[in-house]
Design a protein that fits this description.
With 57 residues, the chain is mainly β. The chain has one domain. The protein has one helix and three strands. A three-stranded antiparallel beta sheet has the order 1-2-3, with no helix packed on it. A hairpin with a 6-residue loop joins β2 and β3. It is globular, with a radius of gyration of 12 Å.
Length: 57
């Protein structure tokens, strides 16, 4: 699996430039802001399957 970056960076064109804590309130995961976890997108280079893995900050 290869890391593709923060999941929230793929929401729209301006997402990578938004405040991280603000985006955590909108990411759809209930414990990313309070649990200090960040959803990252991982992709398999062979089959192109995507998986979201939470990274501790």
């Amino acid at each position: 699996m290869m890391e593709s970056g923060r999941l929230m960076d793929f929401y729209d064109d301006y997402s990578p430039y938004m405040e991280i804590d603000l985006m955590k309130l909108e990411d759809g995961y209930s414990n990313t802001n309070s649990g200090h976890r960040c959803p990252h997108l991982y992709r398999c280079p062979a089959c192109y399957k995507d998986e979201i893995i939470f990274i501790k900050e």
